[in-house]
Design brief:
Elements: H1 3-6, H2 11-18, H3 23-28, H4 30-43, H5 47-52, E1 59-63, H6 67-82, E2 87-90, E3 103-109, H7 115-126, E4 130-135, H8 138-146, E5 150-154, H9 165-178, H10 187-204, H11 213-221, E6 226-231, H12 235-249, E7 254-258, H13 265-269, E8 284-290, H14 295-306, E9 312-318, H15 323-344, H16 353-364
Parallel strand pairs: 1-2, 1-3, 3-4, 4-5, 6-7, 6-8, 8-9
Length: about 375
């Protein structure tokens, strides 16, 4: 038997072998999940949502862990870019000391059982805070039946939280739009964005193009350290990219933001002068960008690319005129790329044994 018989030669073959829980199918449905989530909020007939429009909120606090927290990161960046009040993200059992009655809390747990979020949410509710829960069920969803200051926006289950980002984020974003906290795209503009993103997803779907850009980039990443850089407003994409690589393919990834990394990390990258980290020339560097970056940030990135110590540096331009579209474009790229890399490593992208083991241990010591 030759090596070709022993080892499938394409990502399609590897997907058939290792994608045992349908991660690829969930990824193919990402844009449709977004579309359905926005539509769900627009059709949701709830008096409390309309009442929220007339309240004077001073901040939004997003509670979440892992994939359920990513939406909060995206909301925070969008609020900095086009919002009326700040949006902060909190990942812990505890609650911030600055929380007050004018803070609107979005508590998100895909399962509704994430212990850190259940604990933090219950503290807030017991102190009279206003909470909107986004969950498929569990103890978190049950709070809406116990506390009059808690309201539930149900989401869709049956898949890992990191693949449910479309369901979760669309509900979060559309809700904050509906109550006037985020000023964003019109319904028509959103539909146009979704249409473009659907085409983007098909373009990066390696089951349709097993030898395309995603396959080639993933192949270059298999044996090299990975670094992800981007401008400040792309921080949620940078962080989610790292997390997807951690979970889907069990790989580390270094992350950095421009301009901040230009004041510290850039020294370790070297490329100019005699010094630099011994591993700097072995990294694969992925640089996430979008068209409306500050011109000085663009110049800083241009300089960095020109002086990069590694030959493996790629710029991934988030297409679209709005930050929202650019961030979602990055989501599509990172999902397909991290799944492809998992398959090349011979890993089922759904398998997260250390996380499952930790949860089992924590249950045993309660």
């Amino acid at each position: 038997m030759n090596s070709q018989d022993q080892h499938p030669s394409t990502l399609v073959d590897l997907a058939l072998k290792f994608d045992n829980q349908g991660i690829i199918g969930h990824t193919q449905n990402f844009v449709e999940d977004l579309r359905k989530g926005f539509d769900f909020i627009h059709r949701l007939n709830a008096e409390w949502i309309d009442e929220f429009k007339h309240k004077k909120w001073t901040s939004v606090l997003c509670l979440g862990m892992g994939g359920s927290a990513s939406g909060g990161d995206f909301l925070s960046a969008l609020a900095d870019h086009q919002g009326s009040i700040p949006i902060k993200v909190h990942r812990d059992y505890t609650i911030p000391s600055w929380l007050n009655e004018s803070t609107l809390v979005l508590s998100t747990s895909h399962s509704g059982t994430t212990e850190e979020i259940v604990a933090a949410t219950e503290q807030i509710l017991q102190h009279g805070g206003t909470v909107v829960v986004i969950a498929t069920g569990g103890e978190l969803a049950g709070f809406a039946e116990v506390y009059p200051n808690c309201h539930l926006i149900p989401t869709v289950g049956g898949q890992p939280p990191r693949t449910a980002f479309g369901h979760i984020f669309s509900r979060q974003y559309a809700f904050l739009q509906r109550v006037g906290i985020l000023q964003g795209e019109s319904d028509q503009q959103l539909q146009e964005i979704f249409n473009r993103l659907q085409q983007v997803s098909q373009n990066f779907d390696f089951t349709l193009d097993p030898e395309g850009d995603v396959a080639q980039l993933a192949a270059a990443m298999t044996t090299r350290p990975i670094s992800i850089l981007g401008p400040t407003e792309c921080e949620p994409s940078v962080l989610r990219f790292k997390n997807q690589l951690n979970e889907n393919c069990a790989r580390f990834a270094r992350i950095g933001l421009v301009p901040e990394m230009n004041h510290n990390e850039i020294v370790a990258w070297g490329g100019v002068g005699e010094h630099g980290d011994p591993s700097n020339d072995s990294h694969v560097i992925l640089i996430l960008t979008w068209q409306n970056m500050h011109h000085r940030v663009q110049q800083r990135l241009d300089w960095f690319i020109a002086h990069s110590p590694t030959e493996f540096a790629w710029k991934i331009q988030g297409e679209g005129e709005s930050l929202l579209e650019a961030l979602l474009y990055h989501c599509i790229v990172m999902d397909w790329l991290s799944i492809a890399l998992a398959l090349l490593h011979g890993k089922d992208p759904s398998v997260i044994v250390p996380i499952d083991s930790l949860k089992k241990f924590l249950q045993s010591v309660q």
